[in-house]
Amino acid sequence: MMWLLVFGLALTQQVTLASKYFQESLIHVKRNTLADNNNIICDHQAFELGIVLDSSASILPEDFTKGIKFLQDFLKRFDIGIDKVRVAIVVYSNNLHLEKSFNLSAYITKDAVIGAIGNITHASGGYTRTWDGISYMRSSQLGHQWVRPRVPKIGMVITDGNSQEGRKTKSQASIARENGIIMFALGVGDMVGQTELFNIAGDNSRIFRVESYSNLTSIINTLTNKTCVVTCTKPNLTDVYYVFSQSDLGLDKTRWVTDFISLSIVNNYENKGFKYDLRSDQCPNESGFWLDANKREQDFRNNLKSYNVPKLPVVIQHLRSEAGYSEAKGGRRNATKVAIMVVDSNTTAELVLTEVNLLLHQNVTVFVADPTNSGITIRGTTTLKGNVTEQSSQLVYYLLNPCKVLKSM
Ligand SMILES: *[C@@H]1O[C@H](CO)[C@@H](O)[C@H](O)[C@H]1NC(C)=O
Ligand SMILES: *[C@@H]1O[C@H](CO)[C@@H](O)[C@H](O)[C@H]1NC(C)=O
Ligand SMILES: *[C@@H]1O[C@H](CO)[C@@H](O)[C@H](O)[C@H]1NC(C)=O
Ligand SMILES: *[C@@H]1O[C@H](CO)[C@@H](O)[C@H](O)[C@H]1NC(C)=O
Ligand SMILES: *[C@@H]1O[C@H](CO)[C@@H](O)[C@H](O)[C@H]1NC(C)=O
Ligand SMILES: *[C@@H]1O[C@H](CO)[C@@H](O)[C@H](O)[C@H]1NC(C)=O
Ligand SMILES: *[C@@H]1O[C@H](CO)[C@@H](O)[C@H](O)[C@H]1NC(C)=O
Ligand SMILES: *[C@@H]1O[C@H](CO)[C@@H](O)[C@H](O)[C@H]1NC(C)=O
Ligand SMILES: *[C@@H]1O[C@H](CO)[C@@H](O)[C@H](O)[C@H]1NC(C)=O
Ligand SMILES: *[C@@H]1O[C@H](CO)[C@@H](O)[C@H](O)[C@H]1NC(C)=O
């Protein structure tokens, strides 16, 4: 006998709202990490998960247990909590077994959810009413009254095979998808009809197949990766600083920078929620010394050394320590904070690491623009690539699609 897992992933408001203004955008990006043991874990995200579990007579009790264990191992990969992933389950066979089911708000910790799943026992029944399970999940568990606004909804149906009335299953799955649910189907064993899987998932890319219960474990990583979706809600305000050191760059590269800036500011930005400014270095050190400054040779030599020290770290430090994004400096409280640093050598990249990390801790999104385009990378930042035109257009793209940036972080 076979099992079938069906995932419904509802990306309810996947659109960037079109408007005169740069509205809140909801873009879904992968946000997962590899744990030490190479297990993919999926954190920093919220979604509603509805599991629809077939418990019909054709499933052997030990296989049912393997399915439960699989679900528990799968759920361990996610952040489960009241503001993170919430889980509901409905058990069905020839009818719904609500006594073995629970709703999204029933358990609010990972341990409780995994424990409750572990307590579910096999309840046989000679009919496979997959359509009823999907319908209940969609309307009574993941219905609009019960879910958090703009949080993705994931539904997971587990069945031991084709439903007797495939047409109804197709129709209910389709209603679920029309309600914003993206369906995933996982079939175990060679008895699962590809048509049934497709009718549920609605797309081959969301169909999973394994040959037996023992093989379920092998797909947890892939499945986690596939379902690891984060809802990114960025405010429609963006405060942007270009950050560079004229004295580090010299005139030629500073020309590159001014070209880059003029190409990369968003057109008509004042009407799109953007504020721009730039931070560069002031030049008290550049004017040289008066004759009274270096009475001793060693003073002169020491002062000379300051010309060889990149000034960019200091410029960044000023931006941070003087609270450049604060309301006092014209920043908006709810704005996305962006810094675009011009870095032209790996030496400078090393020297700015500490300051960049402090900016990142203030939730500033940091881009690296590199006039040399030589592959400088700084952890936690997005490096723009190509010539001046290409780097500018990438920056504009990221600024207008702020959630995309998460990919690189
Ligand atoms: C889930 O919530 C629905 C709607 O409130 C309710 O009718 C149903 O009984 C609940 N199901 C379970 C298993 O608690
Ligand atoms: C699971 O069952 C045990 C034993 O019946 C019970 O003590 C425990 O509270 C149950 N756990 C959950 C989460 O329902
Ligand atoms: C499924 O599991 C069996 C036994 O553990 C193994 O021999 C087989 O290679 C697995 N198949 C796949 C596709 O991983
Ligand atoms: C996760 O899926 C993406 C494609 O969606 C792939 O590029 C990436 O390598 C996968 N990650 C792992 C660790 O399998
Ligand atoms: C940002 O969005 C809010 C609500 O969607 C709207 O009221 C506000 O005018 C927008 N602000 C700008 C600058 O676009
Ligand atoms: C000149 O630069 C050095 C090194 O960056 C710094 O320690 C010193 O305070 C600066 N002098 C002035 C007058 O700003
Ligand atoms: C900022 O966002 C919070 C919640 O996201 C909201 O309550 C608050 O009114 C917003 N403040 C401004 C100034 O828009
Ligand atoms: C920085 O390091 C990368 C990788 O090590 C190297 O390819 C690149 O040429 C270096 N860039 C500069 C400007 O030194
Ligand atoms: C950064 O963002 C996180 C999550 O939104 C928030 O908890 C934290 O307080 C923010 N940090 C700062 C310095 O604003
Ligand atoms: C940048 O590269 C593009 C091709 O990718 C080219 O069309 C364009 O002329 C280049 N611009 C400059 C300023 O070099």
UniProtKB/TrEMBL annotation:
Determine the domain of life of the protein's source.
Eukaryota
Keywords, ordered alphabetically: Signal
Q: What is this protein identified as?
A: Collagen alpha-5(VI) chain-like isoform X1
The UniProt entry, under Gene3D superfamilies, shows: von Willebrand factor, type A domain
Write the signal peptide boundaries.
Answer: 1-18
InterPro entries found in the cross-reference section:
ECM_Assembly_Org, VWF_A, vWFA_dom_sf
Q: Where is the VWFA domain?
A: 48-223
* Annotated organism of origin: Biomphalaria glabrata (Bloodfluke planorb)
What CDD domains is this protein classified in?
vWFA_subfamily_ECM (cd01450)
